[in-house]
Amino acid sequence: MTSAEELYERTAELDALQSGLARARSGRGQVIVAMGPAGIGKTRLLTEAGRMAAADCDVAVARADSLHQHLPFAVMRQLLQPLVTQLSASQRQCRMSPAASRALQDVTDSAALPQAEEGVTESLLALTFELCKDKPLVFVVDDLQWADTASVKFLFHLLPLIERQRCCVIAALDDNDEDAPALLNTITADRRCHLLRLSSLGPQTIATIVEASSACSGSPPPDPSFLHACHSATAGNPLFLGELLRLLAREQAAPSADTVARLAPVNAQTVQDRVRTALEQLPKDSGSLTRAAAALGPSPSLAQAARLADMPLDAAQQAMEELRRADRILDPTPGGDVRFVHPLVHAAVYDAVPADESSAAHGRAAALLRADGQPEEAAVHLLRTLPGGGFETVHRLLQAAELAWARGSPEAATVYLRRCVAEPPDEEQRASILYDLGRSCLLNDAAAAADDLDQAYTAATHARPRAEAALALGEALLMQQRSQEAMEVWQHALAEVAEDTSLFQQIQACVLSLPLYDPSQPTLRRATLRQIAEVRSRATRFPPGGTALDCVVAGHDAVLGDPRAVSRALHALHGPSCDELADLPGGEVALALGWLVLISGDQDAVLASLDRALAHAHRTESLTSEAITLTYRAMAGLAHGNLAQAETDAQQAASAAQAASASLLRNVLSPVWADTLLERGLLEQAETALACAQAEPAPVTDLTYHVQCSRARLLRLGGHTDQALEAALAAGQSFTAAGGTNPALLPWMSEAAWCLHALGRTDEALDLAYEELRQARNWSAPRAWGRALRTLGLLQTSAADGLKYLDAAVLRLQPSPARLEYAKALADYAAALAAAGRQTEASQATAEALTLAQRCAAPALTGQIRSGRPADPTTEPVWAAGHG
């Protein structure tokens, strides 16, 4: 007999799955997500995917559920434990590194706290990659919308790496679930995630299923009006169609449009009504067992359900048989679990229980699980109890939050802490819990953190806890570009803290950093610069607050073009308190300025600091920290000419920043990402990256002068020279108004100069170029200095003068880490040598430039070198005429 649950109209989806599996087998893995409403056939499709992969792949299957949505790595436990269990001791030793073994233990062993030095997600990724070395690995995850956030974060980090692995993730997602982790939206919106949007069944398929059903058995072929009514009543949903056909068969009604109209519509509510009716007709023991099982999850063991229902096991087994004979409630397949046939059926049973009875059931379940040595499982049940449990509930939830932190799931800790607040705790404990809640939120969601930290700040009764809450609150506000509110909070806190403390200097560093993050307030900037002069001369530093101050002072000095900023930032970022600062609220606000100084100063040492910070972000499982660190690592990659890594970092930083509600980063990250794409010749993608900053051509506020300068370059390369000049000058005006005199931070003058030259205004271009050279020489870092020399060389009217400046640019850049800028200088130098008739030297310089451009993964520059065109300008210099 044909079933409504068979695979119909899924040829394209099956082809996509076959393709994804083939990619995984060849080491080019993929994430595939099937999306659609409940009952559309996602589970059936996943079952087929597992069957297709089973012949030559290791297949791991997991099903998320709403009860365990806040159990750290609940889905990853389901996936990885069976895979590792089936390995022999020798296979484990060969295929699993010590770090990978620790990672699995860290997420599964409730008897011990995690021991891994790496982040749990990072270690689980390493374990996954080790498991797929010998055989392709396929993860099949159903009901992804209910996955715990830690497992979703694992998927988020796997997504950019899977393309180089023999691994495939095939998941099903109900796109109508409002409680799904927000990070899922970031994953499904990523171009690397292949979406399969499952459509409803068409009329012809509906007709095939209906004609083969028992509802039409022995009847004449159904007329078109009946078939149309079946399609309309169920919206082509396979699950609901099956429900309709069972209703018709049970009523033994004639298959007519009128009969269907009486039953329509058939949807999730229909399923719930049918289940509730069936429950009312069951014997008492069967009903008790069903409700107990529903409280425990979608497929608890019969023994667990019997204990919760306070039934002898033999009585439970008899009740189970009654349930299996009931109308589509439990899976009829024999086994030791109480398995509901569909999540909608499980939800119908669970929702039918009054809130107070459900709360009591979860309370008993928590007690039973604690007695069995499963404190984490017990904690998820406490979340389902009604508030009012008192001290004991708060104590248990705080323990669960601490364990979730250690397991690498601050998001789960956030849920437990928020439930603690609702309990409620006593007033003094409440302030502490609110602070921990806000700090936990700040790691991954700045918007949510601000509300909690504001309450913690208000609830704190002593000066130091209030100041600590203010420090974290200000960071959350700044990340959302609410700089004025952040300033007010920090200034109030500063007035309450003793000056001879690290905490005071940390808050002061945050206050003094604001003009650098929001340079649109000249009055604030002038006041800040007066304080900077005083702080710069102060000898006493209290780490780690003093380290934060040094980073901020260095940031201000860099904007002014003072080269002493580099040594100050080097001292700060390589001091013993730097890593400690990363653990504190507001620490990365200061650290980012130190990184900016070292990047603009062409210091290789910044890479080690960034790598340490990224490792810290992974250990703390913080998307906010990851977004900040990857933004500046992308900036460093661009400055050094490592374009492939810069693009990867920028894309991952953008995803992390979006998920963490860190909108402040958009104006820093977007131009870095866009400039990287421009170096690779990807103008359309660069335009998309700039759009993320939501910057308009005018007026320029906040940090958008970086965006404007990048936009100027995009417009110039696109042939819109007039608009490019306008954008470059607007960027320069804004930067200058903010005190900026350092072309290493914003090379707006050379950008404007190239536009002016293209418009025939070379004299004005030369004025800007000479001023940029003066400022770059004052800053003394090779990349900015070499760029300024190269710009002047291209603006000269004689080949001899051009050669002089370009020769100086090559000499300045040759020993520097700025490989891309050095390649450009070599390319233009080669053109000048050719114009001077020095062909042998020109050929050597061209060859070296070409090699460097290819190493930098800069195809646009490679093409320009091969064609003999200038590396950056859109118009050739006068001296190059006839030598292209």
Short account of what is shown:
Residues 863-884 are annotated as: Disordered. This protein is mainly α and 884 residues long. Helix 36 (683-691) packs antiparallel against helix 37 (704-717).
Explain what this protein looks like in three dimensions.
There is one protein chain. Helix 25 runs antiparallel to helix 26 (502-517), helix 31 (587-600) runs parallel beside helix 33 (623-640) and helix 39 (748-758) packs antiparallel against helix 40. The chain is built from 45 helices and 5 strands. The radius of gyration is 32 Å and the shape is globular. With 884 residues, it is mostly helical. Helices cover 65% and strands 3% of the residues. Strand 3, helix 7 and strand 4 form a beta-alpha-beta unit. Among the domains are: 11-197, Rossmann fold; 203-266; 781-884.
Neighbour order of strands in the largest sheet? 2-3-4-1-5
Using the alpha-carbon principal axes, give the shape.
Answer: globular
- Indicate the percent of residues in helices: 55-70%
Q: Which class best fits the helix and strand makeup?
A: mainly alpha
CATH architecture of the domain at 11-197: 3-Layer(aba) Sandwich
Taken as a percent bin, the fraction of beta residues is under 5%
CATH class assignment of the domain at 11-197: Alpha Beta
**CATH topology type of the domain at 11-197:** Rossmann fold
User: pLDDT below 50 for ≥5 consecutive residues: which ranges?
Assistant: 1-5, 695-702
Gyration radius (Cα, Å) is 32 Å
User: Main sheet, how many strands, which sense, barrel?
Assistant: 5 strands, parallel
| Count of individual beta strands | 5
Give the number of helices.
45
Instruction: Quote the average pLDDT.
Output: 90
Keywords: ATP-binding, Nucleotide-binding
Region (Disordered): 863-884
InterPro entries: AAA_16, P-loop_NTPase, TPR-like_helical_dom_sf
Organism: Streptomyces sp. NBC_00180
